[in-house]
Amino acid sequence: MHRRAVARRPDGDGGRERGEWSDVSVLELSNISKHFGAIHAVNDVSFSLMPGEVVGLMGDNGAGKSTLVKMIAGNFRPTHGTLRMNDKPLVMHRPVEAREHGIEIVHQDLALCDNLTAAANVYLGRELRRGVWPFSILDYAGMYRRSAEIFAELKSETRPRDLVRKMSGGQRQAVAIARTRLSDAKIVLMDEPTAAISVRQVAEVLSLIRRLRDQGITVVLISHRMPDVFTVADRVIVMRRGRKVADKPVADSSPEEVTGLITGAIEHA
């Protein structure tokens, strides 16, 4: 099983040091490729994800980021290559299987129901019930209680009974992230979580990402926003034309270098 030390910058936010989590990878991708006929969306990509780290995944539109993430999330099966977890091959046919292995995804559109409360959205499709079918009823008290506990863990001001339609962008992200805490998530994939929200709300979301990291959860942050990645990520992976062109600690890179890698001005780093 792959082992690697990943240095973490001190961020002044109470984050844990790298050594407090296992140095054994939670997921390994080996020579992963995905072809759609003649279109080679992802080509020969390999990397490992370590517990309690934030990995920024960057690249231009069409670079292969979304396809790569969909393979990790169980939407697509690789054409070539293998995924390994706990030193065993990981083969998934549906997203629900990824969830069973501790892989959760927060989509860019968040997939929330505006007319429901925060707690109802957290438990959407996974509602708690009391009694025995067919005489069981929804356990609203239990869902409100557990949702409140999760929001407290995330240090979010979101309240279980608040309607989603009245929430800010940062609060909506908190609801979507809270859903990932219902299961024993090991990896959370976040697709452009800070797109189209205010500066204050961006700070809220980055703080939520740190909370996940501090609980030993690996976060893959797919983003076009360079400041966000360099603020919260420990490592940056850059994709261009379906290939990985960089995988390094953010402390050893710079926004200028990443921009050059994305545009092709720099071939590899």
Automatic annotation (TrEMBL):
Q: Mind telling me which CDD domains this protein's record contains?
A: ABC_Carb_Monos_I
Q: From the UniProt record, list the coiled-coil ranges.
A: none
For the ABC transporter domain, which residue ranges apply?
A: 27-266
Q: Which PROSITE patterns match?
A: ABC_TRANSPORTER_2
Which key words tag this protein in UniProt? Answer: ATP-binding, Nucleotide-binding, Sugar transport, Transport
Nucleotide-binding among the record's keywords?
yes
Q: Name one GO molecular function term.
A: ATP hydrolysis activity
Q: Name one Pfam family in it.
A: ABC_tran
Q: Which PANTHER family match?
A: CARBOHYDRATE TRANSPORT ATP-BINDING PROTEIN MG119-RELATED, SUGAR ABC TRANSPORTER ATP-BINDING PROTEIN
Q: Output this protein's name.
A: ATP-binding component, ABC-type sugar transporter
Report the source organism.
Answer: Aurantimonas manganoxydans (strain ATCC BAA-1229 / DSM 21871 / SI85-9A1)
